[in-house]
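Readers of this paper often ask what the protein records in our data store actually look like. This encoding replaces a full spatial description with a residue-level series of whole-number codes. For reference, a complete record is included directly beneath this paragraph.
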Amino acid sequence: MSVLILAVAALLTANVCIAGDPYLEVLDRLGRLNSLPRLSADLKARIVASLPKEGEVKTLTAMQRKKLEAVAPVLQTHGREADYLLKVVQARQARLAIYARSVVLITDTALRLLSTAELQALVGHEIGHQYVWDEFEEARKKGDHARLRQLELLCDGVAILTLHRIGSPVSALISGLQALTNSNQMNGIEVDTRSHPTLGQRAQFARQIIPAITGSCHDASTTCKLCCFGTRSNDPCCAHEK
């Protein structure tokens, strides 16, 4: 069973106060995700070959390299450390995006302004898109902005669970999103936000689910499963959840 499914199934059965039907719908959708598909070596090679040669930032500072190296636990939590490629590209816009299911594109502006934990959070969000890739693409083609906003919240949930599992502050998701927003506004960059919830809505969603995720592992079996998100926990409690 997918570690994400195991974690979220617990969230759905825990006594958590979720404000509003949209949040309940997102949590229900989180609980019905499938495991991530693996990519063949041939497909990965073709994806890499399709990337444009221009625009990639190849000279990084020691601090930038350290931030990128800190993303490894995020990839490991999802069992995909061998499948994902991180690429830093030059752009004024502060942004992260996932390309062809396996390449996480990070603008040099975003890499410069994000903290390590914020970068981990936003990469976790991008990995979340992989769980609902086909649904996201279908909604995008139809111009279904309401569905896209719902799926973005789902990806936020993946990011928060991931942060907790690797021991990073779960608050980093919202602070990272705020940092990107502030940077783009200050640089006069207009971003189409129709397909994304507002920052306030995302913060409200995070506030609703964080208490269940960060609760004591030994309080209840459902909360225990949340603590055991991932596959490398040494807590004896987690032996019963694998």
About this structure: The CA atoms of residues 216 and 223 lie 7 Å apart. Strands lie at 85-89, 96-99, 103-107.
